[in-house]
Amino acid sequence: GTKPRADSAHSEFQDIDQARMFAAGGLPYSVTVCDPLQLVSIMRDAVATALSQRVCVHVAVPVDIQGMMIQAPTHLCSAQPSEIRKRVEKTRGDSETLDAVAARLAMPGERVVVAVGLDARGAGAEILQLAEVLHSPVVTRLDAKG
């Protein structure tokens, strides 16, 4: 843990910005929790980074936050999976629609990157098909893997 938030950044004994120090040492994910409401999402992202990239991560949690009673969130992502599934099922295109969109996007001289997020869960085959037709890379968020 780190010093309480009110006592940090005063250039006193053991006043070290741990997140900067570990990031400078090469860790791809090193964060200091600044607000108790950040704790769950930061820990989710830290674990996802560690597991997906097979790397060490660092999360600094100030002592005052460690001692707080924090209300658990009702969900760990910005949308409810059941609602996302409903929206995806309503909007999922057929092969003809995908081919038409791909043809329009594949104009000479154009470069396309397919960016997908959490709403694309369950549409992996269609996304791959579109990316192959466009010869485009696919970029995802950690919570949109698969």
Describe this structure in words.
- With 146 residues, the chain is mostly helical.
- It has six helices and four strands; from the N terminus they run H-E-H-E-H-H-H-E-H-E.
- A two-stranded parallel sheet has the order 1-2.
- Helix 2 links the parallel strand 1 and strand 2.
- Helix 5 packs parallel to helix 6.
- The mean pLDDT is 75.
Summarize the structure in short.
The protein is mainly alpha-helical and 146 residues long.
Give the topology.
Elements: H1 18-24, E1 30-32, H2 39-53, E2 58-60, H3 63-66, H4 81-91, H5 95-105, E3 114-116, H6 124-134, E4 138-140
Parallel strand pairs: 1-2, 3-4
Helix pairs in contact: 5-6
Shape: elongated
How do the SSEs run, as a string of H and E?
Answer: HEHEHHHEHE
Determine Rg (CA atoms, Å). 21 Å
Helix/strand-derived category reads mainly alpha
Query: Order of strands across the widest beta sheet?
Result: 1-2
Number of helices: 6
Strands, total number: 4
Mean pLDDT across all amino acids: 75
Low-confidence stretches: none
Strand content: 5-15%
How much helix is in the residues?
A: 40-55%
Biggest sheet record: 2 strands, parallel
Separation of termini?
34 Å
